[in-house]
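This is your field. Pick holes in the following sequence-structure pair:
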Amino acid sequence: MNRLLLTLIVFLGVQMGAWADATPDGFPGVFRHWITAQKTAPDMRVEFNLTKTMAALKVPIKASGRFWNYANGRFRWETGKPATSVLVYDGVTLQSWEATENQWRQHNPKNRSMRLWMDFLGGQNLTESGLIKDFLITTAATDKRSLARVSLEPKSKQVRQYLKQIDLTFNTSDVRLVQLHIEQGDGGSQTMDFNEPKRMTEADRAVVPQPASR
């Protein structure tokens, strides 16, 4: 499950017109508009740089990554060039692959804990009420006026064992996520710095095939 935390990168790259100020009910405005934008967001491809720290390592691990997010909820996430970690959801089946194991593993997308990550990834089922139920959400200023940070802390003690906090830093000029920082329960962290999203090419659309009709 720890490796799947990286798949939270669905937050990246969605363009929308909103500020990061909290609304009267306390919910961050940038989040509210992002959730709405997810429902109609076009197919996108985003490249990012990943920095991972671990208590056992003195030097952080760095790698490049790519994320393909389709409007119908399908996605593909991978790091390394060539890829060393891959997570793919074709709309029916969720599978992951690690170069160290060199085999595909299938996951149950209907599992309750997995469903949370799936909601983040696809964005289709993500709701304000669901976020409020699962996370304590706060906003904070950064050292740059053009940036705003939203933090999510899991309310569940069980979840906090492996996920301590998620920090999302947005560029307020176009409300685009520029960084995602994850603090893990084991003391490690993962930081993803995102490039601007790009519209998919025909080749990109073939990266995750449509599932066979049933």
Observations:
- The longest helix spans residues 112-122.
- Confidence is low (pLDDT under 50) at residues 1-20.
- DSSP finds five helices and twelve strands in the chain.
- Residues 78 and 86 are 4 Å apart (CA to CA).
